[in-house]
Each structure stands twice: as C-alpha cells, then as structure tokens.
Amino acid sequence: VLLHRLANFQRVWSLPPNENTGKEVTALAWRPDGKILAFGLADTKRIILCDVEKPESLHSFSVDLSITYMHWMEVTEESSVLTSFYNAEDESNLLLPKLPALPKNYSTTAKIFSEEKSDEIMKLLGDVRLNALVLGGSSGFIEIYAYGMFKIATVNGVAGSCRGLCLSSDLKSLSVITEIRDSSDSEAEITYFQASKLDTSLLSSYLPEVTRMARKFTHISTLLQYIKLSLTCMCEAWEEILMQMDSRLTKFVQEKNTTTSVQDEFMQLLLWGKASLELQALLMNQLTVKGLKKLGQSIESSYSSIQKLVISHLQSGSEALLYHLSELKGMALWKQKYESLGLDASGIEEAITAVGSFILKANELLQVIDSSMKNFKAFFRWLYVAMLRMSEDHVLPELNKMTQKDITFVADFLTEHFNEAPELYNRKGKYFNVERVGQYLKDEDDDLVSPPNTEGNQWFNFLKNSTHLKESPLLFPYYPEKSLHFVKRQMEGIIDQCLQKPADVIGRSVRQAVCLSLYKISQSEDSTPQLFKLPFLWNDKTSNIHYVLFTILENSISKIHILRRHTDTSRSVSNGILAVEFGNILNNSINESSDSRCYSCLDAHFYDDETVTVVLKENVEQEGKERILAQLPLSSVYTDEDQDRKFIWDSTERLDERSGEIPTCTVFLENQWRVLENMKAQYVSVNGIRKVSCVLSSNLRHVRVFEMDVEDDGEVEEEEEEETT
Fold first, then answer.
1. For 653-697, what is each residue's pLDDT tens digit?
2. Both 16 and 128 in a single domain?
3. Cα–Cα distance between 436 and 453 in angstroms, integer?
C-alpha cells in the first residue's frame, strides 16, 4: 500500500507486504474523517486499520472469507437523543483512571499504547458520531462494522461475490452489486450482475441505541487488545535464563552415580556445610559463583518487571473492562430499548464472571512472584556463601550471619521445590520446576506444573463445606490448575460470543427489497483488473437516492446507464433507468457524418451529488484519436422528471436482453471536457470535496491528477503530474 500526497505526489509512506499482515491487498476504504485507511488482505483474510500519518496497524481483525469490496460511511441522521449523546462527556473518562502507557522497551508493543499521553487510542475510536465499515466478499459475504472495529451485522441471503456496495447515510438501506458465476459451462463463465437492495430499517429505527452499544463495544475491543499486549510484554520480561536452574539440576540427576536425591544433597550442604564431590562439581564448574550472581540478578529484575506490569497494566485494564461490561449489562436490562438489538444480559453476566476469574488469576500470579522473590533471595544468599567457602574465598562477615529463621526458610524452599518428579520429566523433559512464574505465561492448554498449594487455606475450606456458596453467582470461578494465558483466552472467547449476538440478530432483520438482473459480461472483459471495474454505486445523502452506474455493450458501443432507487424501501418507487449517449464532442471535421462519431464510456464515477465524471473513447479508434475526460451534469440527463420511469421492468428478464427499449438521452457537453493527450486513459477516481480527478492508464502505470474547477480565460486549465512506476 502506497500513500502519496495529492498536491505534489510526494510519498507519505509505503507498507510492504509482510508475513503477519498479508501480501495481497484486495480492497481499500478511507474512514469518513480521512484519518484512518482500512485495507483488506486476501491471503490472510485480515482487515488492517492504518494511521494516515505513519504506516502502523492501529487495529486488525480476521474475517471468514476474502474481501472484494469495502465502503466506509458516516451516519448523517440527527436527533435530540443523539446530539445529547454526542455532546456528553464519556463517563468512563471521569470514573476510570487513565490507562498507563505500556513500556516502550518491548518489541511487540504496538505503538498505539506505548506513547505517553497516547492519543492514538482516541484517534482509533475517532468521533462519537456513528460510522460504519461495510465489507463485501466472495459467496455473498457481507458484514457491517461500527467505527470500523466492532461487528454489528452479518447479512445473509445475498448470492454471488460482491462487486460494490453502499449503505445509505440514514442506515435505511444497503445496495449491493454481486457477480454470480454459472459453473455449468467451464469455458465461458457467464456472469450475472444483480443490484439487490436490502432493507436495514432496524439499524435506522434504533440509531441512538446502536450508536451507544457500538461505542461500548469499541471500548471493550480496545481494552482486550491492551490486556493482550500487557501480557505479551510480561512474556518478554520473563527470560529463558530463569530456566537454567531446572535444566542444570536435571542434567545433574542424569549424570550422578549416587543414590541420594538432589534434595538430600542440598540438605546435607545446609546442615553440615559439606557437599558431595558431585554437587561440588555441579556448583563450581557448571553454575559458578559468577553465574549464580547473574542468575540472581536476572530473576530479580525479571520478576519485578512482571510484577509492575501486572499491577499497573493488567489490573487497570481488567478493571476498566469490568466497568464497561457492567454498563453494557445495564443497557441489556433495559429491554424495551436494547432487547430487539440482541443484547443479552445473561451472556454479558458470563463475560463479567470471566473477567473476574482473570483478575483472580492475575492476583494469584502476584502472590507466586512475591513468594518466589523472597525464597530465591534467601536461597541464593545461602548458596553464594557456601560456594565462596568451597572455593576458599574470603566471606564478608555481614554475609555470614544466618539466623535460625533463615535456615528454616531455605530448608522449606528445598523441601518444596527440589523434589524430583519423574512424571514431570515425561511431560516437560525435566525433573524440577524450581522457577514457578514462567508456567503462568506459557500459551498452552496444559495444566500448571506446580499449581499453588491451597491446603489449610481457611477460605477454601469454608467454601468447600458451605452448600449455599458453592453455586453462588456472586463468586468468581477459580481455575487453580490453569495458566494466566488459558484464562485470558477463555475470557476473550466468552466476551466475543456475548458481543457476537447483536450482529446475528441485526443481520437476520435485513430483508431483501428488490433483486434485479442487470447484464452479463464476456470472458474477454474479465481479464481487466478487478479493482476498478464498473458498476459504481453512489448514495445521494440529501435526497436519499441510490444511484448505480454501469455500461451495457450495444452495437459495439459501451453505453452508460444510470439506475435510480429511493433508499426508503417502503415507498413504492419504480426503478428509474436511463441510458446516456454522448453527442459530437470533437467537432473538428464538419463533413464527417455524425453517426460515425460515437463514444464508448470506459469508466464513470460520481464527482458529487449533481455530477458524474466519465472517461470516453471514440469508437472508431485511429491514430491521434485521444481519450476524453468529461463532466456530465445530472441536470442535463434528467431534464424531464419522469423520463427514466417509462421503462417497464420485468424482473424475470435480464436488462441487457431488452437494452433497446431503455429510454436514451443524448447529451452535448459544452466545455466540461478535455482531451487526454498521450495517454491511454482507462480508469478514473474522483474526489468532489477536493475538486480533483485522478486518471489511470490502461496498463496501470501512469497516473494523472487534474484539478477540476479551474477557470482561466474560458479555457479549463488543469494542473497535471505524471507518475511512472
């Protein structure tokens, strides 16, 4: 993906294909405020939301099928309820502490959470006004994502692969153009186009509720990402060096000839101050005094980093998540407003419980870190002195002091951590699990190797003996055998499931209002790149009309057709359709008969609500006959209001079979055109707000940018640049 500034074609950034995101970009869409670019990848079936300023993925999600078209629209509907919601300060900002930024020194942290006073997250959430990213893909796949992040509808019942779609700005209707392939004839695959218009009135009638719900969903979505990244940072803080103790001791067991256990060897050293020759060799030759010191420092720095991440990031993220889910549960209980959108209180209750279990697990990890740090400190201090004595080095007097309490502490540590476990060897290839923190951060389904010891815990005993509390919904379930990663995955799954329901309910409410068969395309046309082909859909926000532009080949001329439909499907509006012919433009030779001057339309795009930009070519292609860029005002097409209603549509027939009966209007363009010299122009892309058009050549190698509204001495003069890649 390459992003260039329009004014001088200076490259802003490029995002090369990579393994993580994907290699084959099939669709792009700008967020209406122009701050975020979304693109879909076919090979990995992912959607990436990228910042306009720098090529960084702010958010990404996976879809089931590869995407062929994307459309990002903004809701323009106004109402007093919505206005008050837009203007109200988001309460969570007042009630929740600001999420601390993630430390920068970890490779995986997405920049989005690591910059101080991170506005990135707000940039990702964008304006409160609802906007929706509509995705269309192969085999009738259509999904709508609120704010480009959270799925609010999965639309079923559309056949074929999506070629274009458009959601009206009042959310009342969705127009889709699909391509249906007939597989019976393998050589010339015949393709039908259908403009199916879907009625999405549930979204529009519950607009304030949908907006509120979607806003909550996006908060939850970003918090889940924050928790995931915090956990990734914790995994990076835990280093492999901490496994040294386990592997050295395992090797020692495999090589020693004595029958005494490792635990006894260390106990003898603790009690009599004498070590067997084998233990001496292990400590002095393999572990070494220097190595022991380094191991001690690694454990301390690593554990304290993990501890900080749990306390400041994991816990604050989970608490914020708990807050938003509780708010969502409050909405779900307001049945008259939210029930019909599929919000389900019991599902959200389960999600809240899952977050509770995750917080419990994080607390358990904190306790394990705390006790491990104490134990290791005492153990290493004792072992360091013992090793100095073995090597007959001078021992500082302050190190030599060891109280009875310290000795008991080390003895307990040895009893608990240094017993050999043959079944562990079969599972993990080691006999020991001295280091207890790493097991919580492993992303695997296995149970913990050394779960915490809950014997003698009064609360556990109390729960065990109480019949009423066992099943209480107020208590969060606790999974003593599972790792933190496992509980997090379980939590994500439950939250996803409870937020998935509205998308299904809203999707099921979408009804098909009309289905029209347009035309079939020949195999030869099919070789042109899929990316730019007509038909083109446009939604006129002021008069709530969907327009479809497409061309039908008639007597070897590609004639442009305009189809109009009102977005309010309840109104009985017939399908207005009109064909447009272009009269003589290049009137340079008078004696040529006017019939031979026919123009085929190569590409067309709506410039704004009143104008269509077209690329034309003369049908009699000779040297020096250049292609033409022209502006077609709709006012010159729709001179008589009802002229496009005269065609009586029979939905059983395809439109191109009756193309001769479609009313045709001939347009003479006065000065709204220009010849494109030295360029085999084929495609056009326009932006009416910025008053520019980009024309792309048929070999996709040359781009020209034109300013459209520059008047100078009656001549239309445009700036142009050419970019050759």
1. 777 788 788 888 888 877 788 888 888 888 999 988 888 899 998
2. yes
3. 12
Write the secondary structure of 605-662 as one string of H (helix), E (strand) and C (coil).
EEEECCEEEEEEEECCCCCCCCEEEEEEEHHHHCCCCCHHHCCCCCCCCCHHHHHHHC
Whether residues 454 and 578 share a domain: the answer is no
Which helix (H) or strand (E) segment holds residue 364: the answer is helix 345-390
Q: Are residues 226 and 139 in the same domain?
A: no
Amino acid in position 228:
K
Long-range contacts of residues 674-679, Cβ cutoff 8 Å, at least 24 apart: 674/628, 674/629, 674/630, 674/706, 674/716, 674/718, 675/586, 675/626, 675/627, 675/628, 676/615, 676/626, 676/627, 676/628, 676/629, 676/704, 677/626, 678/626, 679/626, 679/627, 679/704
Q: Which of 327, 436, 428 is nearest to 376 (CA)?
A: 436
Domain check: are 492 and 601 in the same one?
A: no
Extract the residue ranges of the chain whose pLDDT is less than 70.
89, 106-123, 182-197, 240-242, 257-258, 424-429, 431-432, 522-533, 569-575, 585-597, 621-624, 641-645, 651, 711-725
Cα angle: 312, vertex 445, 364; to 5 degrees: 35
Pairing of strands 190-199, 511-521: antiparallel
Range of the domain at 14: 2-105+119-181
The number of folded domains in the chain is 3
* d(C-alpha 59, C-alpha 124), whole Å: 8
Reduced to 3 states (helix: H, G, I; strand: E, B; else coil), residue 39 is strand
Q: Is residue 515 part of a domain?
A: no
Q: Are residues 499 and 579 in the same domain?
A: no
Is the four-CA dihedral 138, 143, 149, 151 of positive or negative sign?
Answer: negative
561/478 same-domain check: no
75 and 161 assigned to the same domain: yes
Say whether the peptide bond before residue 397 is cis (omega within 30 degrees of 0): no
Contact 324, 219 (CB under 8 A): yes
- The whole-angstrom separation of Cα 107 and Cα 94 is 32
Q: How far is CA 299 from the centre of its chain?
A: 36
The DSSP secondary-structure symbol of 22 reads B
Residue 96 lies in a domain: yes
Instruction: Convert the pLDDT of each residue in 169-206 to its tens digit.
Output: 888 888 888 888 766 554 334 566 666 667 788 888 88
146: CATH: 2.130.10.10
Last residue of a domain, one of 161, 181, 201: 181
562 shares a domain with 487: no
Q: Distance of CA 178 to CAs 31, 108, 512, 580, 606, Å?
A: 23, 40, 14, 23, 20
The pLDDT of residue 586 is 60
Q: Which amino acid is at 670?
A: E
**Does any domain span residue 34?**
yes
Would you say how long the chain is, in residues?
725
pLDDT at 574: 55
Whether residue 191 is contained in a domain is answered as: no
Give ∠ CA 646-647-653 in degrees, rounded to 5: 165
* CA–CA dist 57, 108 (Å, integer): 12
In angstroms, the CA 125 to CA 219 distance is 8
